């Protein structure tokens, strides 16, 4: 594989010796990903340990009466390490039967690219049923922390205020252009100025909103969260169902598996 950077002699070689190795692709919660990254970083910075830390283990349960049926397999992820804190330690791995064929590529610090293998199984990692209440409590605490805004005071070095007062001759220009400013106001693009929040933080805010009321329109959620509508739709498709008919037509509401969390929080 060659990359044209203006130099015909520049090229990147991909090591494909591991192309037939089977790997698993797993989508995990944000807090689990941060925990694993933290453990890996602390292990790499420690000189006393040369082995990679065990961040978790996969437990496979097989029904002996349906041993030939792949759908009868049940996968569970048990978290390892001692710094998991209040995070649930057991998760269910829901395996996808059909997915687009994929492979895994890795790049070293020297720019060397290797093919680590092909994806054999794809999983969606969710909290185990017995740890669901613990996970909801952790999400509520994270939501409350995210709602606290840390205000900062910035000191302006230029105490003369040159950039803060109008220069000579500016007063007439401001008065004459006041009508133009009023006309230009509707052209403002609110969607362009919205910046995306962290996905985990936005999910927590969404749960908080649905605790306040069960049904929301997309326009209301955009105003409440100040997020781009397209990005908000991606989150809504995962957490909510869209009512196409009935008294709540045109609104979103939480999926049944998330409603209990909102009800428990309201009761508290």
State the main characteristics.
single chain; 268 residues; alpha+beta; seven-stranded mixed β-sheet; two-stranded antiparallel ribbon; 9 helices; 20% strand; globular; disordered N terminus
Structure commentary:
Strands 1, 2, 3, 4, 5, 6 and 7 form a 7-stranded mixed β-sheet that branches. A two-stranded antiparallel ribbon has the order 8-9. It is α+β, with helices and mostly antiparallel strands and 268 residues long. The longest helix has 16 residues, at 30-45. It has helices at 30-45, 132-146, 170-176, 178-184, 190-193, 199-212, 218-225, 229-239, 256-267, and strands spanning 14-15, 22-27, 56-61, 74-79, 90-96, 103-107, 113-127, 240-242, 252-254. α2 crosses α6 (199-212) and α6 (199-212) packs across α9. Helices cover 35% and strands 20% of the residues. The chain is built from 9 helices and 9 strands. The model is unreliable at 1-9 (pLDDT under 50).
């Amino acid at each position: 594989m060659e990359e044209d950077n203006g130099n015909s002699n520049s090229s990147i070689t991909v090591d494909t010796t591991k192309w037939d190795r089977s790997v698993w692709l797993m989508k995990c919660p944000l807090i689990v990903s941060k925990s694993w990254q933290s453990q890996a970083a602390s292990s790499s910075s420690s000189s006393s340990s040369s082995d990679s830390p065990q961040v978790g283990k996969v437990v496979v349960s097989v029904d002996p009466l349906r041993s030939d049926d792949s759908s009868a397999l049940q996968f569970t992820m048990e978290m390892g390490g001692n710094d998991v804190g209040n995070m649930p330690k057991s998760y269910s791995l829901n395996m996808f039967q059909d997915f687009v064929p994929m492979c895994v590529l890795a790049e070293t610090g020297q720019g060397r690219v290797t093919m680590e293998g092909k994806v054999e199984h794809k999983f969606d990692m969710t909290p185990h049923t017995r740890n669901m209440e613990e996970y909801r409590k952790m999400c509520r605490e994270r939501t409350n922390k995210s709602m606290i805004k840390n205000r900062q005071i910035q000191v302006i070095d230029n105490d003369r205020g040159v950039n803060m007062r109008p220069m000579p001759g500016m007063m007439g220009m401001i008065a004459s252009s006041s009508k133009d400013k009023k006309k230009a106001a509707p052209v403002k693009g609110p969607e362009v100025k919205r910046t995306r929040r962290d996905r985990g933080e936005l999910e927590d805010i969404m749960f908080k909103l649905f605790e306040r009321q069960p049904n929301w329109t997309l326009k209301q959620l955009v105003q409440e969260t100040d997020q781009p509508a397209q990005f908000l739709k991606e989150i809504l498709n995962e957490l909510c169902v869209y009512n196409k008919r009935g008294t709540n037509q045109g609104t979103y509401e939480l999926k049944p598996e998330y409603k209990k969390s909102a009800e428990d929080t309201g009761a508290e």
